Amino acid sequence: MDGALSHEQEAMRSAMRRFLAEHCGPAEVRRAVASPAGHDEAVWRRLAAEFGLPGLAIAPQYGGVGCGSVELALVCEEAGRALLPSPLTATVAIAAPVVASLGTPEQRARLLPLLAAGELTGAFVLPNGSLPEALALTGPNDGDWAGGGRAGGIQARRHDGGWRLYGEAAQVLDGHCAGLLLVAARHGGYTKGRTLLFLVRPEHPGRVRRTRATSLDETRPQSRVELRDADAELLGPEGADVPRVLAGLAGPIASVVAAEAVGTADGALQRTVEYVRVREQFGRPVGSFQAVRHRLAELHVAVREARSAAYYAAWSGRPDVAGLALAAALETASRVTGEAIQLHGGIGVTWEHPVQLYFKRAASDELLFGPVNRLRARAAETAGVFAAGAGGEAVVL
């Protein structure tokens, strides 16, 4: 792998950074998250028109730009640095690749152009689990994340040649405003059931109820989605192996989420470096003290390591590499934002200061996309790092 970015990739990153610096400052972020959509819809439309952001990784035949995971990781890192509230993660990083990989030719032709143009946003509805579970990043995706046939999940049943869904999911990214819900549901009962994915249009409030929830990180709005015999369309052919398809998407999705977490860490670090240059103690800037310099240097190295891992994961597409990169990014974001709060002193925990938004984003991401120890354990298992010895104990190869 050549670690240097191409001229086009550097230009893309620079343009994205300039745009977000102009339109996504702390004041703009606060206004956006307070809106009914949870993001600035005008900014999203401009990102679609000027950068082709929603269709960045969608094939040109469907109206997309046709770039790869590396380019998507680049712009997601910039979005994470600015804490951009947008449908980027839920729609571009998750929903679009799922439709592209699992959808029938007719479904791809119908939905992907709308997603690429930014006219349609999506949300992935997982009733009983997390995204890493569904992608087999923290364990085998055996369908428990879709309810496993037990109460509390989402159940699917046939109805007049179509499908009806019943159940609910408590934490759905962008679930309150997405125009398309990708719903994981179980069909066939507890013992012989299997996990399927369905397309649900939330136009019927009586059958699809969506409630925006109070969340730790307001820049990633979450919602409760309740389905009451909601009309649904099966995504892909009926015989599709949904867990296998999702596991195949683990590499690109996890690497993009990792890159966004790296951006969060880097944004918090940059703000901290700027602050310690002007904050004074004992008549000197705090940044002039050797202990502070050492702490910042260690954080800088940690961010660079996490960035390298995220981009290598995006380039390779390997699920085990992506799982490790995501673990490193989440851990780094948590460490850097925690240090940022401390180095800002008392002002860092006030509502008015933006550094607390970075801390909340890092904490929320670890809950949504972790935990770190399970990501690493699964990556080691997938890569065959451990094998059973003669005595039945795990030994390192």
UniProtKB/TrEMBL annotation:
<comment type="similarity">
    <text>Belongs to the acyl-CoA dehydrogenase family.</text>
</comment>
<dbReference type="Pfam" id="PF02771">
    <property type="entry name" value="Acyl-CoA_dh_N"/>
</dbReference>
<feature type="domain" description="Acyl-CoA dehydrogenase/oxidase C-terminal">
    <location>
        <begin position="257"/>
        <end position="381"/>
    </location>
</feature>
<dbReference type="InterPro" id="IPR009075">
    <property type="entry name" value="AcylCo_DH/oxidase_C"/>
</dbReference>
<dbReference type="InterPro" id="IPR037069">
    <property type="entry name" value="AcylCoA_DH/ox_N_sf"/>
</dbReference>
<dbReference type="GO" id="GO:0003995">
    <property type="term" value="F:acyl-CoA dehydrogenase activity"/>
</dbReference>
<dbReference type="InterPro" id="IPR036250">
    <property type="entry name" value="AcylCo_DH-like_C"/>
</dbReference>
<keyword id="KW-0560">Oxidoreductase</keyword>
<dbReference type="Pfam" id="PF00441">
    <property type="entry name" value="Acyl-CoA_dh_1"/>
</dbReference>
<protein>
    <submittedName>
        <fullName>Acyl-CoA dehydrogenase</fullName>
    </submittedName>
</protein>
<keyword id="KW-0285">Flavoprotein</keyword>
<dbReference type="InterPro" id="IPR046373">
    <property type="entry name" value="Acyl-CoA_Oxase/DH_mid-dom_sf"/>
</dbReference>
<dbReference type="InterPro" id="IPR009100">
    <property type="entry name" value="AcylCoA_DH/oxidase_NM_dom_sf"/>
</dbReference>
<dbReference type="InterPro" id="IPR013786">
    <property type="entry name" value="AcylCoA_DH/ox_N"/>
</dbReference>
<feature type="domain" description="Acyl-CoA dehydrogenase/oxidase N-terminal">
    <location>
        <begin position="7"/>
        <end position="119"/>
    </location>
</feature>
<dbReference type="GO" id="GO:0050660">
    <property type="term" value="F:flavin adenine dinucleotide binding"/>
</dbReference>
<keyword id="KW-0274">FAD</keyword>
